[in-house]
């Protein structure tokens, strides 16, 4: 099996493709594959030349932290829960998320996600929940990994612009549900940074690794 | 305004930062990655507290006794009393941040049973309690970030503390962006860097928690405590990429452990310990599984599928995703794996170490769990310790100025430069891999003087080559410079295990199988110029 990886040594350096041969089991995830490729003292590419270790972010290795979001065979996904046997190709291409600046190889800078939430005051403040608010929905929305997959597939999201994407809508919903004094503010900021520009492709809903019902968050914030 | 430098942004670091900001101090929160990537998000089962929701007859006194008993009676009573006494307040604090606890039809939190408890008192959020708490705390911290009271610094690593004459004045950090060492001065430094997972390679947690800070501070004069007590969680699932935790919540909801003998299920924990046998403490269950030596399964398939979906959906998903196991129809194959470290930096009741103005909170600190931690007490301790450290720092009189550390800085930078130019046949990851093999083999569930001495010999060899490693530029500079301190921590852990001539809690010695009343003390270990010295804390100096 051929593994092609889009690599980049430094934030400002040129990206390039490098390929590796892999003949192990397909019963592992792409995260397991990257671990395998990096395991030996010397890392050898498909041309037999020694190369550097592949940079990638990982922490939990079980779909709970969102670190390993990347683009696998042109589909954005978490590497730790994308299994080789499901890819059904003899060649696998792996590249970093395209909507974020590359730090090194498959590691990208996602700090803008938190920055956007911070500058628009998406926090509860005083806990003062709305009555009969949907408990289950809050539980699901709070599972957001801030992995960036919903932004990667969104046709409206561009890094650095004022449209902040689906994960923003979910955090707005959490504040809206938990402090009724901020609910009007949250509707306004939601509209300015999401609602008014969302073209409703809903690709964010399909891609979410936590299956967060983002559409329901949007519906609640649209409600008069 | 007081400046607090916090190393680590998981639940303990986040809590400490929020509390510091609430008390009018400025907190700088350092971590290589964002809080969503912290191991805290993997805490599954719940958080213990005696609240109005608990069973009749339960009390804070019961929680204290359960914790002390579960910990082999060597945790400090004063410390545990503080922990359990503040648990209800912590649940209310978490509710006030918007943490989504699982609730009943009236909207009140419900509780579940966990191992070693006399009463049900574990509050929970499905089976992703840690994630729900982290999400709420991130939002709370965001509020103070907006007010300029919390600054987050990502892609930064702890290098060493700035210590002079037993007092800490800040820390040297490694900044991955500029690839340089950076001194940061502060009125207090709080280490909240998590457990020591990397000593054992892959555990149920993240390898980002590597114990480096504890090892480095040990070399700088901080005392460590109880390193021999390592919790093997009895129910983990083998997958192609790691061993994954099957939450104690499964047993809390009635899950039964068994092995098969001639086609017949033997519910061994119930046979040995009675109807509540499956909820014995983790050390006891792990040791029984190890002793049996057969394939063991955890069965919850008899539970109503709707209850599985409601109470343990994350366990259901994990088993299906990584092993194709439908837990509503078939049992889960389980075996023990390293999960938690009861030992770490020795701290006083205020969470200050033996070095003034240097604090430790969360799993990297050793305080409440004695020889074995009860499920549901780690999240509680993470939050309580973060709060306690912040409160103590707030009560201190602010001191101005700091000694001149320019010489220290130059020495550290020169040492790092020397590492960058080093060449030999030893690669850092190769040594790390060998260390984890040694620790898994020699610091396992059952130890003996012979296996521990073998482990010590191995580690001494790794240490002898650690300062001659081949600098691996494709590993991070942090990974390269952290090796000697990680090896030192491993050696200290084996030294503690060798020094305890009895079996207690998670520390089981085949050559000393009995628990001895005259050894019911914590182990303290210190380092001085290559000498590792252990002593029992008979005076309970870390209880005051």
- Oligomerization category of the chains in this entry: heterodimer
Gap from first CA to last CA of chain A: 54 Å
Find the CATH topology of one domain in chain B. Answer: Methane Monooxygenase Hydroxylase, Chain G, domain 1
Low-confidence stretches of chain A: none
| Structural domain tally of chain A | 2
Q: Mean of the pLDDT scores of chain B?
A: 95
- Taken from the alpha-carbon principal axes, the silhouette of chain B is globular
The tally of beta strands of chain B, per DSSP, is 24
Task: Look up the CATH topology of the largest domain in chain A.
Answer: Fumarate Reductase Iron-sulfur Protein, Chain B, domain 2
The name of the CATH architecture of one domain in chain B is Up-down Bundle
Q: Which range best describes the helical content of chain B: under 10%, 10-25%, 25-40%, 40-55%, 55-70% or over 70%?
A: 25-40%
Give your account of this protein's structure:
- The complex is a heterodimer of chains A (224) and B (544).
- In chain A, strands 2-1-7-5-6 form a five-stranded mixed beta sheet.
- Chain A is an alpha+beta fold and 224 residues long.
- The model of chain A has no long low-confidence stretch (mean pLDDT 94).
- In chain A, β3 and β4 form a beta hairpin.
- Chain A contains nine helices and nine strands.
- In chain A, α6 crosses α9.
- In chain B, α1 packs parallel to α5 and α14 packs antiparallel against α15.
- With 544 residues, chain B is α/β, with parallel strands linked by helices.
- Among the domains of chain B are: 103 residues, Flavocytochrome C3, Chain A, domain 1, CATH 3.90.700; 110 residues, Fumarate reductase/succinate dehydrogenase flavoprotein-like, C-terminal domain (Methane Monooxygenase Hydroxylase, Chain G, domain 1, Up-down Bundle).
- The interface between A and B is large, with 51 and 52 residues.
């Amino acid at each position: 099996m051929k593994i092609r990886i889009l690599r980049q040594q430094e934030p400002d350096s040129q990206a390039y493709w490098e390929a590796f041969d892999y003949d192990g089991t397909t019963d592992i995830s792409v995260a397991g594959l990257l671990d395998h490729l990096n395991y030996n003292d010397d890392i050898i590419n498909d041309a037999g030349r020694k190369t550097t270790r592949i940079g990638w972010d990982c922490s939990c290795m079980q779909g709970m932290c969102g670190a390993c979001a990347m683009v696998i065979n042109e589909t954005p996904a978490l590497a730790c829960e994308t299994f080789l046997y499901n890819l059904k190709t003899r060649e696998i291409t792996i590249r970093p998320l395209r909507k974020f600046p590359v730090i090194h190889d498959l590691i990208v800078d996602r700090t803008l996600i938190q920055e956007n939430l911070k500058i628009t005051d998406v926090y509860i403040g005083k806990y003062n929940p709305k009555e009969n608010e949907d408990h289950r929905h809050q539980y699901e929305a709070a599972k957001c990994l801030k992995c960036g997959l919903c932004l990667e597939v969104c046709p409206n999201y561009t890094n650095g612009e004022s449209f902040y994407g689906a994960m923003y809508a979910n955090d707005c919903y959490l504040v809206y549900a938990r402090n009724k004094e901020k609910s009007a503010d949250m509707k306004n900021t939601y509209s300015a940074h999401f609602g008014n520009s969302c073209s409703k492709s809903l690709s964010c809903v399909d891609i979410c690794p936590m299956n967060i019902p983002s559409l329901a968050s949007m519906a609640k914030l649209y409600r008069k | 305004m007081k400046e607090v430098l916090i190393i680590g942004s998981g639940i303990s670091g986040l809590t400490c930062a929020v509390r510091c900001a609430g008390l009018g101090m400025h907190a700088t929160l350092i971590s290589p990655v964002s809080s969503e990537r912290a191991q805290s998000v993997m805490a599954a089962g719940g958080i213990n507290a005696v609240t109005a929701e608990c069973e009749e007859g339960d009390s804070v006194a019961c929680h204290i006794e359960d914790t002390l008993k579960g910990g082999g009676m060597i945790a400090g009573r004063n410390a545990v009393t503080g922990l359990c006494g503040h648990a209800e307040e912590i649940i209310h604090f978490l509710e006030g941040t918007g943490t989504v606890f699982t609730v009943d039809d009236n909207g009140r939190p419900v509780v579940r049973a966990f191992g070693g408890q006399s009463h049900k008192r574990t509050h929970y959020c499905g089976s992703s309690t840690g994630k729900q708490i982290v999400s709420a705390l991130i939002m709370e911290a965001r509020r103070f970030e907006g007010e300029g009271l919390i600054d987050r610094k990502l892609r930064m690593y702890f290098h060493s503390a700035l210590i002079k004459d037993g007092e800490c004045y800040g820390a040297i950090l490694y900044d991955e962006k500029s690839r340089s060492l950076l001194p940061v001065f502060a009125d207090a430094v709080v280490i909240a860097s998590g457990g020591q997972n990397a000593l054992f390679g892959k555990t149920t947690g993240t390898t980002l928690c590597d114990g480096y800070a504890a090892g480095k501070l040990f070399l700088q004069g901080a005392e460590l405590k109880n390193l021999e007590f390592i919790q093997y969680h009895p129910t983990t699932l083998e997958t192609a990429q790691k061993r994954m935790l099957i939450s104690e919540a499964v047993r809390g909801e009635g899950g039964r452990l068994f092995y098969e003998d001639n086609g017949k299920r033997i519910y061994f924990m119930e046979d040995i310990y009675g109807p509540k046998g499956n909820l014995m403490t983790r050390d006891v269950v792990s040791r029984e599984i190890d002793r049996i030596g057969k394939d063991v399964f955890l069965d919850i398939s008899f539970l109503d599928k709707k209850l599985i979906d409601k109470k343990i959906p994350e366990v259901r998903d994990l088993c299906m995703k990584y092993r194709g196991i439908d837990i509503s129809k078939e049992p889960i194959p389980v075996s023990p794996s390293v999960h938690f470290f009861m030992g770490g930096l020795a701290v006083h009741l205020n969470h200050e170490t033996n070095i003034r103005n240097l604090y430790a909170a969360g799993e990297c600190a050793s305080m409440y769990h004695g020889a074995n931690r009860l499920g549901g007490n780690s999240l509680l301790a993470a939050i309580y310790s973060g709060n306690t450290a912040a409160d103590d720092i707030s009560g201190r009189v602010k001191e101005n100025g700091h000694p001149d550390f320019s010489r220290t800085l130059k020495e550290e930078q020169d040492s790092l430069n020397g590492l960058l130019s080093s060449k030999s046949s030893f690669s850092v990851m190769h040594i790390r891999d060998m260390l984890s093999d040694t620790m898994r083999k020699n610091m396992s569930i059952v130890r003996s003087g012979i296996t521990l001495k073998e482990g010590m010999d191995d580690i001494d060899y790794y240490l002898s080559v650690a300062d001659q490693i081949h600098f691996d530029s494709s590993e991070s500079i942090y990974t390269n410079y952290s090796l000697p301190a990680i090896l030192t921590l491993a050696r200290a852990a084996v030294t503690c295990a060798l020094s305890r001539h009895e079996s207690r809690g998670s520390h089981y010695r085949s050559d000393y199988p009995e628990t001895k009343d005259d050894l019911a003390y914590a182990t303290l270990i210190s380092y001085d110029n290559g000498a590792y010295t252990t002593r029992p804390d008979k005076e309970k100096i870390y209880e005051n």
